[in-house]
Amino acid sequence: MINPNKKRLRRSMMFLNAQKPSLIKDPYIYQPDSLMLDLEDAVAENQKDIARFSLFHALRTIDYRGCETVVRINGLDTDLWREDIRCAVAGGCDSIRIPKTESGKVQKVGPTIKPLMNNEESKLVKDIHEALIKCEAHDGMTISFHHHFREGDLIVNMVMEEIHKMGIKNITLSASSLGKAHDPLVPMIEDGTITNIESSGVRGKIGEAISAGKLKGLAIMRSHGGRVRAIVTGETHVDIAFIGTPTCDDYGNCRG
Amino acid sequence: MRIKKSAVAGTLESSDCMVTIEPVEKGTGIVFDLDSTVIRQYGYQIRKVTMETLENLDVSDIKVTIVDKGALDCTIKARVEGAVYRAAGQKQNIPWGGMM
Questions:
Q1: Which residue has the higher pLDDT, A3 or B32?
Q2: Are A142 and A225 in contact (CB under 8 A)?
Q3: Rounded to an integer, what distance in angstroms lies between the CA atom of residue B16 and that of residue A47?
Q4: β-bridge pairing B7-9 and A194-199
Q5: Distance (Å, rounded) from C-alpha A176 to C-alpha A201?
Q6: Are B78 and A56 a contacting pair at CB < 8 A?
Q7: ∠ CA A114-A118-A120 to the nearest 5 degrees?
Q8: SS3 for A191?
Q9: Is A97 helix (H, G, I), strand (E, B) or coil?
Q10: What is the pTM of this model?
Q11: Which DSSP category does A74 fall into?
């Protein structure tokens, strides 16, 4: 089920102790954007079980007059959260909030990128081949393209052709999208230069080649946001990124 | 459901009620005792809600003592159920939406 109100405005959130009937019976009179019914810190440790009954019946019975009802469950490091979710879902809340989500599993592992200015030196090289050698391109790397020029693109083809010529194999191609313009990559999929593809979608001959089972590894399709997240969480590790940009200084700052 | 021990749920704050459940001898049925600030207005209603809730939970042979400070029906239900599940010693896998 998709919640049509998923991206609604949440300017004000009213936190209420789910255990206190005097609080949860009429908070809608203040018309906050969201009502946060708390099972976590607001509720005393020895009242957690009782608070769920109070929450369940409040959600079932009380008309919150359009206020979004969010339930904050106990942390995933406790043994309480499973029952909290069962209760909140059965009660019919609009949303569930997980507290303390800064655990290792969702921690940011991608590097924070900062500009580095240097007007004295130049990083310009004469061709893609030299750039690949300087980046120490080798087998099994993840090569990323973001963002190239969609159906008018030549960057992906030029770079991959050079990689092909150098005899590098087992490349994971991580491109923001692959279209008909990238049809020349099909022979590289067939001969094992490209063994994995991560993209937002594939069309044309590449799509046909994947459907025919010619790709040896995995083809992972993500949304554009999902792609960013995969990099941030470390699910995808990019070794070399090739960027098509309208302007760039000699030191590689694409500030177009 | 089988009541193993006595249990309390709720507080004496305004809009809340405190429900005490104690096991009694088999065959006694449900002994109901109510003290409420609004007993003249809602005494029968509170009794009705409590009895319905206990019937849904399939409980008999208990003594229920309620000290009410103006709780709504849903609060009374929640407190009675909370006290019963505590008295039965069940904290997990509660049949939300099933018996309630």
A1: B32
A2: no
A3: 14
A4: unpaired
A5: 8
A6: yes
A7: 170
A8: coil
A9: strand
A10: 0.58
A11: P
